[in-house]
Design brief:
468 residues, mainly alpha, two-stranded antiparallel sheet, 16 helices, disordered N terminus, 72% helix
Length: 468
């Protein structure tokens, strides 16, 4: 059984380069801070020499590990906050339209603004956290999130609501990007992959319960009450972060440059072929997920005639499948099987499920009912439980000194690719589910192509087998 990995304070990986033909076997000369690390749990690892003097803030890092369960819950809460901000609000859209006397298309922009803010905010907060540490940008982002959300609750017009939903998304992005960076600070190797699977368990529950919470809030108050609840959640998370989440980026690992240095760092990350491969692979897999989220209410209810209650049940079952497979990945597979092998298997299952859905929706198997389509969606969504955490882990294992910038690129690319794919599912109107299946097949096949063409996992596996 391969070595189980360990924390960054205890392990150093042998550097490898990810750019250029045959460059994977050459020693890395980092561009800025975009160093590349060995990405397979079976790769040789060297224990850091004992007795080294602790860095000034090493005590905070050790304390963060001692309170591992609390850190897990805090990071899970931070990654769950954006889906809560999006999905709790969905049941209130008709009420917002009536209350603000605005067209439905205008109110839809409040969702678009929040999503755009989450995508762009990560590009700003990630480099900030590499320069000033994780705590200060995170606390600043959380304070701005609380203020923006409170103003949303008081917004007198649709235009003001759209503006502060954009600010809410920009600030809420701090939780997403810094949570991933903190995991990279604290863990390496398969431990990091396991931690990402645990985060998926926590954050994966949010999309399931958020609409239910929003619906229950609407029973007792109007749509503004949803933003009041989100403000309260933001305040609690801010206090928890302030009190219990220690700084995890030691001063020696921080950047001193400004915007130019941040751009050079991101350019160096994107120049790493393998990092870019994992980033795009994960973004395309996320696009498959976005296509499902965008189209499934229409496909399940309008085309196949299911009730809203049945749709909610199927949506919940699919989310449970994703979470369960993510836990199998973290508890049973990671550390026993190469992350690339598990990722490749997950991508293959996604492709097969998407192709099956395309064949069913185009009538190749004749008239099919809801049950076969629901089964195909369940298999596809469950396979996401190994695809998404492992692409994040493999990409971040290559970014020892730029975890914040790398996390920003991972998050922004996923949101942008997903946002591009999402509108395409309705391109042929309301009478067919074929566009959803086509988008899923194209994105899934493209993800496999990026994984094989850019990541080239067999090259690293061959070097490691040969002791290189």
């Amino acid at each position: 059984m391969p070595d189980s990995g360990g924390s960054r304070a205890q392990r150093e990986h042998i550097p490898t380069s990810g750019t250029g033909p045959g460059a994977d076997s050459a020693p890395l000369t980092p561009h800025g801070d975009a160093g590349a690390l060995s990405v397979d749990p079976g790769a040789p690892q060297v224990t850091a020499p004992a007795g080294l003097p602790a860095a000034p803030e090493a005590g905070g890092l050790k304390a963060a590990r001692r309170t591992g369960f609390l850190v897990t819950m805090v990071l899970g809460g931070l990654t769950a906050l954006p889906p809560l901000s999006m999905d709790m609000y969905l049941p209130a859209l008709p009420a917002v339209t009536d209350s603000l006397s605005a067209p439905a298309a205008t109110i839809q922009l409040t969702l678009t603004a929040c999503l755009a803010g989450m995508a762009l905010g990560q590009l700003v907060v990630g480099p900030m956290s590499d320069r000033w540490g994780r705590r200060r940008p995170l606390l600043l982002g959380m304070v701005v999130y609380v203020i923006a959300t409170a103003i949303c609750a008081l917004a007198p017009s649709a235009e003001l609501l759209i503006g502060f939903r954009l600010l809410q998304g920009l600030a809420g992005a701090a939780g997403i990007v810094i949570a991933r960076a903190v995991v990279r600070d604290l863990y390496d190797g398969v431990e990091m992959a396991r931690f990402f699977s645990t985060l998926m368990l926590i954050s994966g529950v949010a999309p399931i319960i958020a609409p239910l919470i929003g619906g229950q809030v609407m029973r007792f108050t109007d749509w503004r009450g949803i933003f009041v609840v989100l403000t309260g959640i933001g305040i609690v998370l801010t206090l928890v972060v302030w009190k219990w989440l220690h700084e995890t980026l030691e001063p020696g690992d921080r950047h001193t440059g400004g915007v130019g240095e941040a751009l050079r760092t991101m350019r160096g990350l994107l120049a790493d072929r393998v990092f870019t491969g994992y980033m795009v692979t994960g973004g395309l897999a996320f696009a498959v997920l976005f296509a499902y989220i965008s189209a499934s209410p229409f496909v399940v209810q309008e085309i196949y005639g299911a009730s809203p209650q049945t749709f909610s049940l199927l949506f919940g079952l699919n989310s449970i499948g994703l979470i369960a497979v993510g836990q199998i990945n973290g508890k049973l597979l990671v550390g026993r099987i190469s992350l690339d092998k598990v990722l490749g298997f997950g991508l293959a299952v996604i492709v097969l499920a998407a192709v099956a859905l395309l064949l069913m929706t185009t009538g190749v198997f004749g008239e099919v009912g809801l049950v076969p389509v629901a089964a195909g969606l369940f298999v596809l969504m469950s396979a996401m439980g190994v695809a998404m955490p492992n692409t994040n882990a493999q990409a971040l294992m290559r970014t020892k000194h730029a975890a914040g910038s790398a996390s920003a690129l991972l998050g922004t690319s996923s949101f942008l690719i997903g946002a591009i794919a999402s509108p395409l599912v309705g391109i042929a109107g309301e009478d067919t589910a074929v566009p959803m299946a086509v988008v899923q097949v194209v994105c899934a096949v493209a993800a496999v192509g990026c994984f094989l063409g850019l990541c080239r996992p067999w090259q690293r596996a061959g070097r490691e087998a040969g002791g290189l």
